[in-house]
Design a protein that fits this description.
It is a single chain. This protein has 13 helices and five strands. By secondary structure, the protein is an alpha/beta fold. The chain folds into two domains: 3-80, Orthogonal Bundle (Arc Repressor Mutant, subunit A), CATH 1.10.10.10; 106-269, Rossmann fold (3-Layer(aba) Sandwich). Strands 2-1-3-4-5 form a five-stranded parallel β-sheet, sandwiched between helices. The protein starts with 9 loop residues before the first helix and ends in a 5-residue tail after the last helix.
């Protein structure tokens, strides 16, 4: 299975489709049925999943291609390599959550706050003015991440469009790659990768961004990566991703960009 097909879990891909589908057609019904019985799917055959969705095997195969997979087998391989909730939360944290939920939530919130404070540093604040200026002067702005950080990009989209700046955001690998290769030198690419693994996991997209020659703004906790030698800006977003708190630092970084853009260019929109 090529991990580039989903850039995250199949569940994320299906949920994103259901959230944005313009109409409830046969593909919508199949996606809904698959999500309703998601935990069972990896142990079921093509025929069994088709029965679960009340469609023929041919219809299910067409749905797999509709979702960007070459075949049912490729989709099924993705299911077998899916991400469990244990990817986000450690067993130690779970045990503490069960034994003393208040203490566990206190630890969680303190880690979250530490990330936000580590993002809102004077060093970041000093650099962010140039980042906002580049955003204002760019022809296009495109946001790159994997599915688990899609909401961070969507938040940026929502804020910026109200200041008449459209930020491109694509979930699928093929669309991200096409976007990267189409960028020009006066455009801006924003890469959000809390752990800094995006160039390693998706080297073809990263190389496309580098070859495009446009400014690259990286939002990450791994600020010392050698990959960032090709980036114009690196915006740190905290220091910890234990138990999935890194996303709050990334959200804070995006909010800082938005607020700085508002400060410099947004007075007329208030």
């Amino acid at each position: 299975m090529n991990d580039e097909k989903t850039m995250g879990s199949l569940a994320e891909k299906l949920m994103s489709y259901l959230s944005t589908a313009p109409r409830q057609d046969a593909n919508y019904d199949i996606a809904l049925a698959m999500l309703t019985h998601y935990g069972k799917l990896k142990n079921l055959s093509l025929a069994e999943i088709a029965d679960l969705c009340y469609v023929s095997k041919a219809s299910l195969s067409r749905f797999c291609r509709f979702m960007g997979f070459d075949s049912f087998r490729e989709l099924h391989d993705c299911l077998r390599k899916d991400f469990s909730i244990g990817t986000d939360y450690s067993r130690t944290f779970f045990d503490k959550l069960c034994a003393d939920p208040q203490a566990a939530l206190q630890d969680y919130s303190e880690e979250l706050i530490r990330n936000i404070r580590a993002t809102a540093t004077p060093e970041n604040t000093q650099r962010i003015s140039d980042m906002a200026m580049t955003m204002a002067n760019s022809g296009r702005i495109a946001f790159f991440s994997h599915h688990f950080l899609w909401d961070i990009g969507r938040h940026l989209q929502s804020k910026m469009i109200r200041m008449d700046r459209y930020v491109e955001l694509y979930l699928d690998y093929a669309q991200q790659l096409a976007c990267a290769r189409s960028l020009q030198k006066d455009d801006l690419a924003i890469v959000c990768t809390v752990g800094g693994s995006y160039p390693l996991r998706y080297p073809t997209v990263w190389n496309g961004l580098v070859s495009a020659g446009c400014p690259i703004l990286v939002i990450t906790q791994n600020v010392s990566s050698s990959y960032w030698n090709f980036a114009r800006f690196v915006l740190g977003c905290g220091v910890s991703n234990r138990n999935d708190v890194g996303k709050y630092g990334a959200l804070m970084a995006v909010d800082m960009l938005t607020l700085q853009y508002l400060r410099q260019y947004g007075k007329e929109y208030l």
